[in-house]
Amino acid sequence: MANTPNASRREPEPGAFDVRGWLSGVGHVPKDAIQYVTESERSGQRTVTYKCGGSTAKVRMASVAGAAAWELVAEFEGAVDRVLLPRATRFVWRAPRGTHA
User: Fold this and answer.
1) DSSP assignment string, the chain
2) Which of 4, 15, 85, 98 could form a disulfide with 89 if both were Cys (CB 3.0 to 4.6 A apart)?
């Protein structure tokens, strides 16, 4: 797929979306270099922060008014990407337990 700004990444597995994998494509860094730091929720919007080498990335997640969908917006070193996903999507925010990624 072409590396164009705001382009959607490849389709996730049915029912699951790997947020770190998505950030890896946005920031052009290895997925293993992306580490979950913290998350917060305010006014129905979730913000998750990641450490990516020497940089910080933020992912904001909010429901789409009038649609059964979530909008995710990633901000990483000046790049911004967004994706819409069905409300039933399961999000994978962190590396699986037992790994060091």
Assistant:
1) ----TT---SPPSTTEEEHHHHHHHHHT--GGGEEEEEEEEETTEEEEEEEETTEEEEEEEEEPTTSSEEEEEEEETTEEEEEEEETTPEEE-SPPTT---
2) 85
